[in-house]
Design goal:
Elements: E1 5-13, E2 18-26, E3 29-35, E4 46-49, E5 54-57, E6 59-64, H1 77-86, E7 89-94, H2 105-118, E8 122-128, H3 134-139, E9 146-152, H4 165-174, E10 178-182, H5 186-195, H6 203-208, H7 211-227, E11 231-234, H8 240-247, E12 254-259, H9 260-264, H10 267-273, H11 286-297, E13 303-305, H12 313-316, H13 333-342, H14 348-362, E14 379-389, E15 408-418, E16 421-425, E17 435-436
Parallel strand pairs: 1-4, 1-5, 6-7, 7-8, 8-9, 9-10, 10-11, 11-12, 12-13
Antiparallel strand pairs: 1-2, 2-3, 5-14, 14-15, 15-16, 16-17
Helix pairs in contact: 1-2, 8-11
Length: 450
């Protein structure tokens, strides 16, 4: 369903400037961008008064784990996409370590079919690499909805793991598109897990899955990409050493990302939050956080993601080291980054570059990521004066919690719009949770990649 919509009097965050004006969406596409306004309502179109609001392109989150199929108690494609919409996210790319793993064409076709019935936002999916599924990886190349190949070079959630050189060479040599790697070195990781098995304090997590573990795998993946001229995207960069090393080694083949939480939290927050802050790779140290910011600003890091990976608080309650790693994030990533902007860490234009245009460029997503005439009418209207404290009870994610519980964030999305259709909205004085407007499957569609 393609919507007709007019936003008036909003501060529009355009690719080269911020200017007050109007924007019209017709048949799901941005028809007119009018700096300084002047557009008049047409019969049958929804009119939104954007006075006091900033109009952004819809956020793209290229790294989520929506747990569908297999673990609906944690999340499914409906609850995850509604949570994403509540956070201003209009498109997501979902990872393959579900149950069963998405490692062949049939599994991906089933995911796409389920998303067509459940998702209220646009969606794409990774296929997971195994030690013996190169033919499956080849079979989905160029298929609508398939954004790339995911390789877990180190053990994490689920049982997808490819770390032996001969298997990695086979994948890099005989596939196309983008390979996204979880870069932790399995051999070092397993030796350190054995070494740290007596530790039950959560600080041990970052010591065990240390920076060298990540750096070894990042260097290895980079060499594979260059040897085989294969596009590589290194997911969830966590350390300053990796970022510094990549700054002069990336070239045109290699891109990378950082999670909101790695720009926000450090060792002190991990100590305070406990297992709520437990994730792989781990949240590290103050110096890493500051270096990630620096390398984001200089262009070494291409985009910001959430790695939304929900687990129930019951599962988390067993404590470290037995608690599962991962946290929810799609509802808070944009307000968290806009709060950073309010605090002077970056600008709102930076955020649009990193969370909208950046992911669209990395994955060559057609017609997304910018307020440009002819692009898709995916929009987010945010209120930079809306300072609200989020509680667990405000969330849409099925697990019902957030690592930012009790924290004040600003820049909450007041309207999230997909193809010109409002899918989520908030009232400035109403519930922070807001209202999900779209019917399941009525708005989101499968993404296409160049």
């Amino acid at each position: 369903m393609n919507g007709r919509l007019l936003v008036q009097n909003a501060m529009m965050v355009l690719p080269n400037r911020i200017v007050e004006g109007d924007l019209r969406v017709s048949n799901g596409l941005i028809k007119t961008v009018a700096p300084f306004g002047g557009l008049q309502p047409e019969i049958g179109e929804l009119v939104i008064d954007g006075t006091g609001l900033h109009l952004l392109p819809g956020v793209i989150d290229p790294h989520v784990h929506f747990r569908d199929p297999g673990n609906p108690e944690k999340e499914d494609l409906e609850s995850g996409s509604r949570a994403a919409a509540a956070g201003g996210i209009t498109s997501f790319l979902d990872m393959p370590n579900t149950s069963p793993n998405a490692t062949n064409r049939l599994a991906l076709e089933e995911k796409i079919a389920v998303a067509a019935k459940k998702a209220v936002t646009h969606h794409g999916f990774f296929i997971g690499a195994t030690t013996n599924n190169v033919s499956d990886l080849q079979s989905v190349q160029g298929m609508d909805g398939i954004c790339g190949i995911k390789i877990f070079m180190g053990s994490s959630t689920g049982n997808l793991l490819v770390h032996e050189q001969k298997h990695l060479e086979n994948i890099f040599a005989n596939t196309g598109g983008i390979i996204a790697t979880h870069a932790e070195d399995e051999i070092r990781l397993q030796s350190r897990i054995a070494e740290f098995k007596h530790r039950t304090d959560i600080a041990a997590h970052a010591e065990c899955r240390d920076i060298e573990c990540a750096l070894i795998a990042t260097k290895r993946a980079t060499a594979l990409a260059k040897d085989h001229s294969h596009r590589l995207h290194i997911v969830h960069l966590t350390s300053g050493k990796e970022a510094d090393w990549l700054s002069s080694k990336k070239g045109d083949l290699i891109t990378t990302e950082v999670c909101t939480q790695h720009l926000t939290f450090d060792q002190d927050d991990v100590e305070k939050l406990g297992v709520r802050a437990l994730m792989n790779p781990p949240i590290r140290y103050t110096e890493d956080k500051e270096k990630l910011w620096s390398r984001l600003k200089d262009g070494t890091i291409d985009c910001i993601v959430t790695d939304h990976a929900p687990h129930t608080l019951e599962a988390k309650s067993v404590g470290f080291p037995k608690a599962p790693a991962g946290m929810p994030g799609v509802e808070t990533s944009l307000p968290r980054m806009l709060t950073h902007a309010k605090e002077g860490k970056c600008s709102i234009s930076d955020i649009v570059k990193w969370m909208c245009a950046g992911p669209a460029k990395v994955y060559a997503i057609k017609n997304k990521g910018s307020l440009i005439e002819g692009f898709d009418g995916d929009l987010t209207l945010v209120d930079l004066e809306n300072h609200r404290i989020i509680q667990d009870s405000d969330t849409w994610t099925r697990v019902g919690w957030t690592p930012y519980d009790g924290m004040e964030l600003t820049g909450w999305p007041m309207y999230t719009i997909v193809d010109g259709n409002v899918v989520h909205k908030r009232d400035s004085g109403g519930s922070l949770r807001g209202s999900s407007v779209a019917l399941a499957g009525s708005t989101g569609r499968v993404l296409k990649f160049n």
